[in-house]
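Something for you to look into today, if you have time. Just paste the record in under my message, thanks.
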Amino acid sequence: MADHQVLEGFSTSVSAWFASSFPQPTQPQIEGWPRIRNGEHTLICAPTGSGKTLTAFLSCIDRLVSDPLPPNIQRTRVLYISPLRALAFDVEKNLRAPLQGIKLAAERLGVGFVEPSVGLRTGDTSAKDRQKMVRSAPDLLITTPESLYLMLTSSARETLANVEWVIIDEIHALSPTKRGAHLSLSLERLEAITARPPQRIGLSATQRPLEETAAFLGG
Protein backbone atom coordinates (compact mmCIF):
# COMPACT_ATOMS: atom_id res chain seq x y z
CA MET A 1 0.00 0.00 0.00
CA ALA A 2 1.30 3.44 -0.95
CA ASP A 3 2.43 5.54 1.98
CA HIS A 4 4.12 8.69 0.78
CA GLN A 5 4.08 12.25 2.03
CA VAL A 6 3.19 13.55 -1.44
CA LEU A 7 -0.27 11.99 -0.94
CA GLU A 8 -0.90 14.17 2.12
CA GLY A 9 -1.88 17.06 -0.12
CA PHE A 10 -4.91 15.18 -1.45
CA SER A 11 -8.34 14.77 0.12
CA THR A 12 -8.88 11.64 2.19
CA SER A 13 -10.93 9.81 -0.45
CA VAL A 14 -8.41 10.47 -3.23
CA SER A 15 -5.37 9.51 -1.14
CA ALA A 16 -7.19 6.38 0.14
CA TRP A 17 -8.06 5.29 -3.41
CA PHE A 18 -4.50 5.83 -4.62
CA ALA A 19 -3.01 4.02 -1.62
CA SER A 20 -5.24 0.99 -2.25
CA SER A 21 -4.52 0.95 -5.99
CA PHE A 22 -0.77 1.55 -6.33
CA PRO A 23 2.29 0.45 -4.33
CA GLN A 24 3.99 3.87 -4.50
CA PRO A 25 3.76 7.13 -6.47
CA THR A 26 6.07 7.23 -9.48
CA GLN A 27 8.84 9.80 -9.82
CA PRO A 28 6.80 12.05 -12.17
CA GLN A 29 4.01 12.03 -9.58
CA ILE A 30 6.34 12.78 -6.65
CA GLU A 31 7.86 15.72 -8.52
CA GLY A 32 4.79 16.85 -10.44
CA TRP A 33 1.96 16.88 -7.89
CA PRO A 34 3.41 19.56 -5.56
CA ARG A 35 4.00 21.90 -8.52
CA ILE A 36 0.55 21.28 -9.97
CA ARG A 37 -1.07 21.88 -6.57
CA ASN A 38 0.89 25.14 -6.31
CA GLY A 39 -0.71 26.32 -9.55
CA GLU A 40 2.51 26.30 -11.60
CA HIS A 41 2.52 25.60 -15.33
CA THR A 42 4.04 22.11 -15.36
CA LEU A 43 5.77 20.15 -18.13
CA ILE A 44 6.10 16.43 -17.45
CA CYS A 45 8.59 14.50 -19.57
CA ALA A 46 8.61 10.83 -18.60
CA PRO A 47 8.56 7.40 -20.28
CA THR A 48 5.37 5.60 -21.25
CA GLY A 49 3.96 3.69 -18.30
CA SER A 50 5.29 6.09 -15.67
CA GLY A 51 1.89 7.47 -14.68
CA LYS A 52 2.06 10.78 -16.57
CA THR A 53 -1.67 10.95 -17.27
CA LEU A 54 -2.61 10.36 -13.63
CA THR A 55 0.04 12.89 -12.61
CA ALA A 56 -1.81 15.50 -14.65
CA PHE A 57 -5.35 14.53 -13.73
CA LEU A 58 -5.32 13.58 -10.06
CA SER A 59 -4.89 17.06 -8.54
CA CYS A 60 -7.66 18.33 -10.84
CA ILE A 61 -9.93 15.42 -9.95
CA ASP A 62 -9.21 15.99 -6.27
CA ARG A 63 -10.67 19.48 -6.57
CA LEU A 64 -13.60 18.39 -8.72
CA VAL A 65 -14.77 15.78 -6.22
CA SER A 66 -14.44 18.17 -3.28
CA ASP A 67 -15.49 21.65 -4.45
CA PRO A 68 -19.04 22.98 -4.90
CA LEU A 69 -20.26 22.89 -8.48
CA PRO A 70 -20.15 26.01 -10.71
CA PRO A 71 -23.29 27.03 -12.65
CA ASN A 72 -24.53 24.23 -14.91
CA ILE A 73 -23.70 25.87 -18.24
CA GLN A 74 -20.18 26.81 -17.03
CA ARG A 75 -19.25 23.64 -15.15
CA THR A 76 -16.23 22.72 -17.26
CA ARG A 77 -13.10 23.24 -15.16
CA VAL A 78 -10.68 20.72 -16.67
CA LEU A 79 -9.85 20.78 -20.37
CA TYR A 80 -7.82 17.88 -21.77
CA ILE A 81 -6.45 18.38 -25.30
CA SER A 82 -5.19 15.46 -27.36
CA PRO A 83 -3.67 15.70 -30.84
CA LEU A 84 -5.19 12.28 -31.62
CA ARG A 85 -8.85 11.26 -31.53
CA ALA A 86 -7.92 7.69 -30.59
CA LEU A 87 -5.96 8.93 -27.56
CA ALA A 88 -8.90 11.13 -26.54
CA PHE A 89 -11.20 8.08 -26.61
CA ASP A 90 -8.72 6.04 -24.55
CA VAL A 91 -8.37 8.76 -21.90
CA GLU A 92 -12.15 9.06 -21.61
CA LYS A 93 -12.39 5.31 -20.93
CA ASN A 94 -9.40 5.25 -18.59
CA LEU A 95 -10.83 7.99 -16.35
CA ARG A 96 -13.78 5.82 -15.35
CA ALA A 97 -11.76 3.56 -13.03
CA PRO A 98 -10.23 6.27 -10.81
CA LEU A 99 -13.50 8.23 -10.60
CA GLN A 100 -15.41 5.12 -9.57
CA GLY A 101 -12.65 4.10 -7.17
CA ILE A 102 -12.58 7.51 -5.48
CA LYS A 103 -16.38 7.44 -5.19
CA LEU A 104 -16.26 4.06 -3.44
CA ALA A 105 -13.45 5.25 -1.15
CA ALA A 106 -15.53 8.31 -0.18
CA GLU A 107 -18.51 6.05 0.62
CA ARG A 108 -16.36 3.80 2.81
CA LEU A 109 -14.89 6.79 4.64
CA GLY A 110 -18.25 8.56 4.95
CA VAL A 111 -16.95 11.78 3.40
CA GLY A 112 -18.54 14.07 0.84
CA PHE A 113 -18.13 13.32 -2.85
CA VAL A 114 -19.15 15.40 -5.86
CA GLU A 115 -19.29 13.08 -8.88
CA PRO A 116 -17.62 14.76 -11.88
CA SER A 117 -19.06 14.33 -15.35
CA VAL A 118 -16.76 13.64 -18.30
CA GLY A 119 -17.47 14.78 -21.85
CA LEU A 120 -15.78 13.98 -25.16
CA ARG A 121 -15.91 16.34 -28.12
CA THR A 122 -14.08 15.57 -31.35
CA GLY A 123 -14.86 15.81 -35.04
CA ASP A 124 -16.88 12.60 -34.64
CA THR A 125 -19.23 14.09 -32.04
CA SER A 126 -22.76 14.50 -33.41
CA ALA A 127 -24.49 17.88 -33.55
CA LYS A 128 -27.04 16.59 -31.04
CA ASP A 129 -24.33 15.66 -28.53
CA ARG A 130 -22.53 18.98 -29.07
CA GLN A 131 -25.73 20.87 -28.27
CA LYS A 132 -26.29 18.71 -25.21
CA MET A 133 -22.84 19.66 -23.92
CA VAL A 134 -23.64 23.34 -24.39
CA ARG A 135 -26.81 22.99 -22.31
CA SER A 136 -25.16 20.84 -19.64
CA ALA A 137 -21.39 21.21 -19.73
CA PRO A 138 -19.20 18.37 -18.38
CA ASP A 139 -16.85 19.01 -15.47
CA LEU A 140 -14.01 17.52 -17.47
CA LEU A 141 -13.93 17.96 -21.24
CA ILE A 142 -11.73 15.85 -23.51
CA THR A 143 -11.19 17.36 -26.94
CA THR A 144 -8.81 18.06 -29.82
CA PRO A 145 -7.19 21.35 -30.91
CA GLU A 146 -9.58 21.70 -33.84
CA SER A 147 -12.71 21.07 -31.76
CA LEU A 148 -11.49 23.53 -29.13
CA TYR A 149 -11.14 26.17 -31.84
CA LEU A 150 -14.70 25.54 -33.02
CA MET A 151 -15.99 25.87 -29.45
CA LEU A 152 -14.15 29.14 -28.89
CA THR A 153 -15.61 30.64 -32.06
CA SER A 154 -19.22 29.70 -31.25
CA SER A 155 -21.72 30.07 -28.43
CA ALA A 156 -20.13 26.99 -26.82
CA ARG A 157 -17.31 29.21 -25.54
CA GLU A 158 -19.59 30.21 -22.64
CA THR A 159 -19.17 26.70 -21.22
CA LEU A 160 -15.40 27.27 -20.88
CA ALA A 161 -15.55 30.41 -18.72
CA ASN A 162 -14.59 28.50 -15.54
CA VAL A 163 -11.77 26.37 -16.97
CA GLU A 164 -8.96 26.20 -14.40
CA TRP A 165 -6.68 23.52 -15.87
CA VAL A 166 -5.61 22.75 -19.43
CA ILE A 167 -3.83 19.42 -19.97
CA ILE A 168 -2.04 19.06 -23.31
CA ASP A 169 -1.07 15.47 -24.04
CA GLU A 170 1.62 14.42 -26.53
CA ILE A 171 2.68 18.05 -26.56
CA HIS A 172 5.75 17.26 -28.65
CA ALA A 173 3.45 16.39 -31.57
CA LEU A 174 1.97 19.89 -31.51
CA SER A 175 4.59 22.39 -30.41
CA PRO A 176 6.70 22.55 -33.63
CA THR A 177 3.75 22.40 -36.06
CA LYS A 178 1.07 24.61 -37.60
CA ARG A 179 -1.46 22.81 -35.40
CA GLY A 180 0.60 23.93 -32.41
CA ALA A 181 0.57 27.55 -33.57
CA HIS A 182 -3.19 27.29 -34.06
CA LEU A 183 -3.58 25.80 -30.58
CA SER A 184 -1.53 28.64 -29.08
CA LEU A 185 -4.05 31.11 -30.49
CA SER A 186 -6.92 29.08 -29.07
CA LEU A 187 -5.29 29.03 -25.63
CA GLU A 188 -4.95 32.82 -25.76
CA ARG A 189 -8.62 33.07 -26.70
CA LEU A 190 -9.44 30.80 -23.79
CA GLU A 191 -7.52 33.04 -21.39
CA ALA A 192 -9.51 36.02 -22.64
CA ILE A 193 -12.82 34.48 -21.50
CA THR A 194 -11.79 32.79 -18.24
CA ALA A 195 -11.87 34.46 -14.84
CA ARG A 196 -8.13 33.86 -14.51
CA PRO A 197 -5.55 32.26 -16.83
CA PRO A 198 -5.86 28.47 -16.60
CA GLN A 199 -2.95 26.42 -15.35
CA ARG A 200 -1.26 24.52 -18.18
CA ILE A 201 0.07 20.98 -17.83
CA GLY A 202 2.01 19.40 -20.69
CA LEU A 203 2.68 15.66 -21.09
CA SER A 204 4.99 13.70 -23.34
CA ALA A 205 7.61 10.99 -23.40
CA THR A 206 9.46 12.70 -26.24
CA GLN A 207 10.28 16.38 -25.85
CA ARG A 208 13.39 17.74 -27.53
CA PRO A 209 14.54 20.38 -26.92
CA LEU A 210 12.78 20.69 -23.58
CA GLU A 211 13.24 24.47 -23.44
CA GLU A 212 11.26 25.03 -26.64
CA THR A 213 8.44 22.76 -25.52
CA ALA A 214 8.32 24.56 -22.15
CA ALA A 215 8.15 27.92 -23.93
CA PHE A 216 5.26 26.65 -26.08
CA LEU A 217 3.41 25.42 -22.99
CA GLY A 218 3.86 28.63 -21.05
CA GLY A 219 2.61 30.86 -23.86
In short: The beta strands are 42-45, 78-81, 118-121, 140-143, 165-168, 199-204. DSSP finds nine helices and six strands in the chain. The first helix runs from residue 12 to 21. The chain has a mean pLDDT of 89.
